[in-house]
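User: I'm curious whether this sequence folds into something compact or stays loose and floppy. Could you predict its structure so I can see for myself?
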Amino acid sequence: MNSLYELIYSKDALKFLEKLDGVNKARIISSLERCRIRPEAHAKRLVSLPYFSLRAGKFRLILDLIRNELRIYVIEIGHRKNIYKNL
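Assistant: Here's the prediction. I'll summarize afterward.
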């Protein structure tokens, strides 16, 4: 059985997503939808942190995969230049 992961967004991630223009917002959402099927195939584990990073154009999404509950928690979304400085 192939189940989809449920997406859960942090307040910061939702706030960032709301501020984006339509093209970038659509790119991020489509990347997340693709990731829902097999997150490990799309997201890259971050070194020294228990989180994953997902590329969406010039943006990166910091994710926490909760495998036993089939959930993807979107912690933060940001530009690739400065997303990792906040972690």
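Summary: The first strand starts at residue 6 and ends at 9. The chain has a mean pLDDT of 92.
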